[in-house]
Amino acid sequence: MLKKIKSKKNVKPIIYDIKNTFNNVNNYNSTENKSRLSECGFFWNEIPTLSFCETKGSSSDSEDEIEQKSKQKSKKLNTIERREQEKQREREIRQREEALANNQLPNSVDQFDRLVLARPNSSIIWLQYMAYYLQTTEIEKARAVARRAVKTINFREESEKLNVWNAWLNLESKFGTSESLNDVFQEAVRSNDSLKIYSHMLIVHVEAGRQIELEKTINTIIGKFKQIPEIWINCGEALLKIGLKDKSRHIMQRALQSLPASEHVNLMVRFAIMENKFGDKERSQTLFEQILSSYPKRVDIWSCYVDSLIKSNDIDIARRVLERTVIQTLPPRKMKILFKKFINFEEQYGTQESVNHVQQMAAEYVEKQCNKNV
User: Fold this and answer.
1) Which residue has the higher pLDDT, 87 or 47?
2) Considering the domain boundaries, does residue 221 fall inside one?
């Protein structure tokens, strides 16, 4: 039971104050809620404005647009889009490489573990983790990192996985045995594009100077991928780098027998460039001369010939070749390309007198063409 209040005089002022306080709070809350709720789309004794209705309509339109975009994305990508995606991935990898190169590398196992947890699909971090152990000659731990990487990286990140597999093959080539290298190689072939793995093995054997293993790998590659021109070029280059010039030339002859005639000219040009870079310069010039005797109007081959001579610092020979090009009888469009190349060559490697001489030859050619048209 509540106790009776003895004095009503003292109670009335208190009740009055409480009522006033309650009314003030209630009025404040009602105005505040009204303003807040109206902003959220609820109205008290008010007519909703059209802007809110328009907002709702626009949101539904945006949802339709999102659905349409998702449907478009679900469509199969064409070849150009796939190539663009691959280029974008390469750009992203390059950007990550530059970012890591600018930042300080981790210097402890804990730091590397945190880094690979944060970015598990980055092959650069995994390779640096492997290098961290290799610096201290902890080969087994570096192998463990490589195996952990190929298991962790998402299967969609093919290029990232391939980077780790290639690094693992390099590790086994330098620090492992022939058995361990072969085991990793077989596993890499099963897990990746076999052509890319075989192509990398050419580099591995060349760097290690293993001639017998290189020749075995070349025979296997040619047996599997002889329809691909780039394979013949890679095999020929590997043999030249290791000093087997005659076998490289034999590879070119086999390629000419295996590939269609439409690929022969480009193949011979590539082998001529490789000969000039890794083999015999005279052999390279002989190849170019043979090609040009059959295709004297191919301006692109003349340009490759000159560029190859410039790279090997045979400036005088390059000048003589250019002099031969501009005395030919070719269409004006092709002659313009040759004269322009000759002038640029003399501007870089000649004198002002030689530049003037070529410009004079070009002017005489133009005048002769004008007289023909008259």
Assistant:
1) 87
2) no
